[in-house]
């Protein structure tokens, strides 16, 4: 996710300067480039984590127990990378438009409000092996929120 954060942080001044200069077409162009680029990067990460989870874990000298738990976890969690990228980039985009609240709320949804209760429920119901699906739910909810709010800001520009 580091490249996604770098992409988003690079977009903030581009969006902000063009928004401040009332060049709304350039703000729209940034949106049209930012999301597909970020999603492509995230998709590459998903493919990497899906195809080589054991090798990635071995970079950290993973024990057999860690491989047993970690390989399915990485595969399950990596499916949500594209949604996470959209959520993160929508947050940065909104920050560039002067609305950091969307970024803060979407991060809270992703990492606290939805994720923690879902993890607790999944662990109680089916154990740790299925708890990783909580990431999907949290990412879907955060992505829906951040995309809708960012899109609303974008529509209200002109």
Task: Kindly list the characteristics that best describe this protein.
158 residues, mainly alpha, 9 helices, 0% strand, elongated
Mean pLDDT: 95
Q: What order do the SSEs take from the amino end to the carboxyl end, as H and E? A: HHHHHHHHH
**What is the helix tally?**
9
Q: What is the helix fraction of residues, given as a range?
A: over 70%
Share of β-strand residues? under 5%
Query: Which regions are unreliable across 5 or more consecutive residues at pLDDT < 50?
Result: none
Count of strand segments: 0
Determine the oligomeric state from the structure: single chain
Strand count, sense and closure of the main sheet?
Answer: none
Shape: elongated
What structural class do the secondary elements suggest?
mainly alpha
Summarize the structure.
The protein has about 160 residues and is mainly alpha-helical. It has one domain (about 1-155). The chain has nine helices and no strands.
